[in-house]
Amino acid sequence: MQITGGKNRGRKIKPVKNPVIRPSKAVVREALFSVLGPNCCSDKQIADFFSGSGIMTLEALSRGAEMAISVDSDPDSCTLIRENFAHLKVLDNARVLQMSVTQAISKLAGLNLHFDIIFLDPPYHLPQLGVDAIEQSVAAGILAPDAKVVFEHRSKTQIPECKSMSLWKQKKYGQSTLSFYVFPH
Q1: How many domains in the chain?
Q2: Alpha-carbon span 129 to 127, nearest angstrom
Q3: Which sign, positive or negative, has the C-alpha torsion 37, 152, 79, 21?
Q4: Which domain holds residue 178?
Q5: How many Å separate Cα 62 from the centre of its chain?
Q6: What is the pLDDT of residues 48-66, one digit of tens each?
Q7: Rounded to an integer, what distance in angstroms lies between the CA atom of residue 124 and that of residue 144?
Q8: Can you state the angle between helices 101-110 and 127-140, rounded to 10 degrees?
C-alpha cells in the first residue's frame, strides 16, 4: 500500500495483515480527494472512523491536514496505524484512539474538537454503523459548520436515511460507493 497524493505521495506503508479489514483501494482514495478538491485537507481537522489501516488519515495528513485522528476498536489495527504514523513522521499531527466510534465521539466532544472532514468506512455488512456515526457526530457537535462526511460502503447496499445531513454526491467505484454528506443550507 502507498500514499496516492500530497507530500508523501508514493511512500509505502505497512499493509494490513487481517483479511477481514478492507483498506480503501487507491483508485477510491484518489477519486475521493478529487471530489473534495485540491486543498480540501489544508489546515483542516480530520477524523477517520472505523480506520482499519489508517490509510485515509495518512492520505489527509499527506495533503496538508493540520490534525487527524484515527479511531478503531481493533488493537492490531491501532498498533499498525501508530507504526505507519511513526514511519511517515506524522506523530505530531496525528492521534489514534483505540475505542468504539461511539466512545470516541463522546471523548472528542468532551475535548471540544470540531472536524472539517470525517471519513467513515464501517464494515460493509454493517452500514447502519456509518449512519449512526453521522447522527452521533452531529448531536455531539463535533462537526465544523461547513463539514463534509465521506461514507464508503458496498455499492449494492441500501444505506439507511441520514436525518441530520444531506447527501451531496455519490460516486461508485466497482464494489465501493462513496457517499458525501453536508449540512443542508
Answers
A1: 1
A2: 5
A3: negative
A4: 26-182
A5: 14
A6: 999 999 999 999 999 999 9
A7: 27
A8: 10
